[in-house]
Amino acid sequence: MTTTTRLALTTVNLDTPDPAALSRFYACLLGWTVEVEEADDVILRAPEGGVGLSFQRERAYVRPTWPAEADRQQMMMHLEIGVEDLAAALDHALACGATLAEFQPQDDVRVCLDPDGHPFCLWLMD
């Protein structure tokens, strides 16, 4: 199937009970800046452009479980963040407010949880 219009992925949205707080965490982690800040929605953009991150208030938010467990809220997606120095990146993520997940499935990846429990991976780039 071919489309007759241009499609462009512009933003990945994370649900959160507190958009301002979660956006501050990711701004610290990634060094990104706030482009839009409203009570129920905050958008971050990378200085070099590209896909942004949006944080949208979800009043019925349920913290995901990592790793997945039956009959518990599971993650629906996660962010992959490439790093050059895994130990330094992990230290930085923890200083910004992340927690290291108890389960670590790979030696060259660190699964962390943001303050709302969304898993994200720090992975060692070549």
Automatic annotation (TrEMBL):
Q: Which Pfam families match?
A: Glyoxalase_6
Q: Would you say which domain of life the source belongs to?
A: Bacteria
Q: Which residues form the VOC domain?
A: 6-126
Give the protein's recorded name.
VOC family protein
Source organism per entry reads Micromonospora craniellae
